[in-house]
């Protein structure tokens, strides 16, 4: 707005759209995420700019934000001992300090804290700032290199952030949490384990049953052999090659 004074002072706001997922810096117009965890797709936001003159003039436009479900392995977390609403309002300055001290282009991927409810967003003095750095060739800087540089420049970064937040600042490198498994995946894993356990148990039962049957069959065979050895085989061939008579010997008839 080319006007001067209040007529040239613009304030930005979200008037329609996904205001629970996104918010806007009213002074700079920078849009940032509030909570888009587990979400992907394109979100249409209606943004309004209004001057502060006596007769307030406004203009609106639609901003389309695309959230990619993929995640980069080069995202690094920086933990600040500041409230999330304060960090969000000063995210542009935080980015500027990091770029100045690291010597790379820095993009703030996400800002979040343990408190997700909007009414409790100023109650936790710890905020996680997820960043990704790009070199002059617009290539992602490996996460380990970013972490190493953050540790080396920690004192300078904290000093720069103290000027932004007007107070002592602690900036520590954190470990980005792994993405939680989806309920469907967890259910599939549990079901797979149960089925595998059932299959193993069934296989063990079959093997034990076969082993037990063989054991008893062997015992029965030994008993049969012992019994057969106690009696002459009635069909055994005699010395002349003919079958023995089944009739009792004459001396047994008497």
UniProtKB/TrEMBL annotation:
Keyword list, A-Z: Calcium, Membrane, Repeat, Transmembrane, Transmembrane helix
Entry's Gene Ontology molecular function annotations: beta-catenin binding; cadherin binding; calcium ion binding
A Gene Ontology cellular-component term: catenin complex
Keyword DNA damage: no
UniProt main location, coarse: membrane
Biased composition (Basic and acidic residues): 236-254
Keyword Repeat: yes
Region (Disordered): 234-254
Pfam families: Cadherin (PF00028)
Stretches assigned to the Cadherin domain: 1-77
Subcellular location: Membrane
A GO BP entry: homophilic cell adhesion via plasma membrane adhesion molecules
Chain ranges passing through the membrane: 185-208
InterPro entries cross-referenced by the UniProt entry: Cadherin, Cadherin-like_dom, Cadherin-like_sf
Record-linked CDD domains: Cadherin_repeat (cd11304)
Domain of life where this protein originates: Eukaryota
PANTHER family: CADHERIN 23, CADHERIN-23
Official protein name in the record: FAT4 protein
């Amino acid at each position: 707005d080319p006007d001067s004074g209040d007529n040239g002072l613009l304030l930005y706001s979200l008037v329609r759209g996904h205001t629970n997922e996104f918010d806007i810096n009213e002074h700079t117009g920078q849009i940032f995420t509030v909570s888009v965890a587990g979400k992907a797709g394109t979100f249409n936001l209606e943004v309004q700019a209004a001057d502060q003159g006596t007769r307030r003039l406004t203009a609106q436009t639609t901003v389309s934000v695309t959230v990619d479900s993929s995640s980069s392995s080069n995202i690094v977390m920086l933990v600040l001992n500041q409230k999330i609403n304060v960090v969000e309002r000063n995210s542009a300055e935080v980015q500027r300090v990091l770029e100045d001290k690291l010597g790379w282009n820095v993009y703030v991927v996400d800002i979040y804290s343990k408190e997700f409810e909007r009414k409790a967003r100023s109650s936790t003095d710890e905020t996680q700032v997820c960043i990704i750095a790009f070199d002059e060739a617009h290539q992602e800087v490996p996460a380990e290199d970013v972490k190493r540089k953050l540790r080396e420049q920690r004192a300078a970064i904290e000093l720069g952030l103290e000027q932004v937040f007007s107070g002592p600042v602690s900036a520590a490198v954190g470990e980005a949490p792994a993405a939680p498994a989806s309920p469907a995946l967890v259910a599939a894993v549990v079901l797979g384990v149960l089925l595998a356990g059932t299959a193993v148990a069934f296989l063990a039962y079959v093997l034990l049953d076969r082993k037990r049957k063989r054991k008893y069959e062997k015992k029965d065979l030994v008993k049969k052999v012992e019994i057969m050895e106690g009696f002459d085989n009635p069909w055994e061939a005699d010395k002349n090659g003919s079958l023995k008579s089944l009739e009792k010997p004459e001396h047994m008839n008497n």
